[in-house]
Amino acid sequence: MFVLTEKVIDSAIDTISGYIVSVVSAETGKPIEEITEAFLASDAYMLLSDAETGYYWDTISELIDKFKMEIYCG
C-alpha cells in the first residue's frame, strides 16, 4: 500500500523540479545552471516546495507554464 509520507513528498518535489528545469532549459536554450537558479528563486518553486499547497500533485505542465511566465514576464 502506498503511503504519502514527508519523504515521498520531498522526493516528488525534487523530481518535478529537475524535470521542469530540464524542460525549460531545453526550450529556451539557456544553460541548465541559469534555469536552476531562476527556478529555485521563483514563485512556482515556492508553491511546489510547500507541501501544504499540494502542487506536487498538480499537472507539471501548469507549473512549467507558471515558471516560464515568471522568467519571460519578470
Protein architecture, described:
The protein has 74 residues and is mostly helical. The chain has one domain. Helices cover 72% and strands 0% of the residues. The chain has helices at residues 6-28, 32-40, 43-49, 60-73. The termini are far apart.
Describe the structure concisely for a colleague.
The chain is an all-alpha fold. Helix content is 72%, strand content 0%. It has one domain (6-73).
Descriptive keywords:
single chain; 74 residues; mainly alpha; 4 helices; elongated
Query: Could you say which structural class the secondary elements and strand pairing correspond to?
Result: mainly alpha
Number of domains: 1
Low-confidence stretches: none
Query: What's the shape?
Result: elongated
SSE order, one letter for each helix or strand:
HHHH
Query: Biggest sheet: strands, sense, closure?
Result: none
SSE map:
Layout: H1 6-28, H2 32-40, H3 43-49, H4 60-73
Helix pairs in contact: 1-2, 1-4, 3-4
